[in-house]
């Protein structure tokens, strides 16, 4: 921008860095690796197209997420970010199982401590546990394969459950 | 070089002949043109070809699946792509950990002698989880990027 040194993108692409260079605000010259990795995975022209289609105030986040994905893909060329997603899903699964077991334990303790309530049979406790597990447990590993088959619904379904974006959603 | 009698979706899209050793054809059958269109839109054909060429053949199908998934996420959400899912999952993990800690604290109150042998489950420490997660990420750059998200999208993390 201006008469200063070219941004990292224009340096890598060996071209003049125009005043209105679309990359310049997000790829400063002091961090050449950032653009290099995004260019390697997505390509400069794809990144440029993606940024042009976004309002200016969303471009910084878009660049950050592209860099994140590009880094993940370079680190794991087979699974990229999907590897991390799969790992996190497993963690959620495990945590929900542990939570279900802990909640079942509380039920058990409470039932034992209630003198008026008859002590439930062992198999009824097992039924309670399996009920909790059935309703809290996520599908098994390799769920990303289900994502791949129904990916258009993935983000929408997730958003319905977690409305953390509110007004941020474009 | 012999050509495929029926071009794969990639070669159809790129309007070129489909050689018998086409790198795309095993993964982009002609009956699903949208699949290659999505991947091409986000990554570009030459980037995908380069990526596949660098992988052993038995890993390429999985790679294409994950590329397609990420491309679809990016098309649906041009700002955050599949990274949004990662944030949501991290939030779910955080919420589940809090709930688990509260539940275990309740157990400890209700029955103090049970506090140490909690249904044979492993304790789930937040620090262990973040270390494990970061091992799936390319180091500090990504953690810094997640921090950057927090500045511009309140409540995202």
Features:
heterodimer, A: 170 residues, B: 157 residues, mainly alpha
Structure, described:
The complex is a heterodimer of chains A (170) and B (157). By secondary structure, chain A is mostly helical. Among the domains of chain A are: 8-75, no CATH class; 78-111. In chain A, 65% of the residues lie in helices and 0% in strands. Chain A contains eight helices and no strands. Chain A has helices at residues 8-13, 32-41, 44-52, 56-75, 81-113, 122-136, 143-149, 151-161. In chain A, helix 2 crosses helix 4 and helix 7 (143-149) crosses helix 8 (151-161). In chain B, helix 2 (33-43) crosses helix 4 (57-76). In chain B, 36% of the residues are buried. Chain B has helices spanning 9-14, 33-43, 45-53, 57-76, 83-110, 126-134, 140-152. Chain B has seven helices and no strands. Chain B is 61% helix and 0% strand. The model of chain B is unreliable at 118-147 and 150-157 (pLDDT under 50). The N and C termini of chain B lie far apart (53 Å). Among the domains of chain B are: 9-76, no CATH class; 78-111. Chain B is mostly helical. Chain B: Residues 6-107 form the LOB domain. Chain B: Pfam families: LOB.
State the major sheet of chain B: none
Strand content of chain A: under 5%
Number of strands of chain A: 0
Identify the most extensive interface between protein chains.
Answer: A-B, 71 and 73 residues
Q: Helical content of chain A, roughly? A: 55-70%
* Quaternary structure annotation: heterodimer
Largest sheet of chain A: none
Written as H for each helix and E for each strand, in order along the chain, the element string of chain B is: HHHHHHH
The mean pLDDT of chain A is 78
Summed over residues and divided by their number, the pLDDT of chain B gives a mean of 79
User: Which parts of chain A are unreliable, with pLDDT below 50 for 5 consecutive residues or more?
Assistant: 136-170
Structural class of chain B: mainly alpha
Family (chain B): Belongs to the LOB domain-containing protein family.
Domain LOB (chain B): 6-107
Protein name (chain B): LOB domain-containing protein
InterPro entries (chain B): LOB (IPR004883)
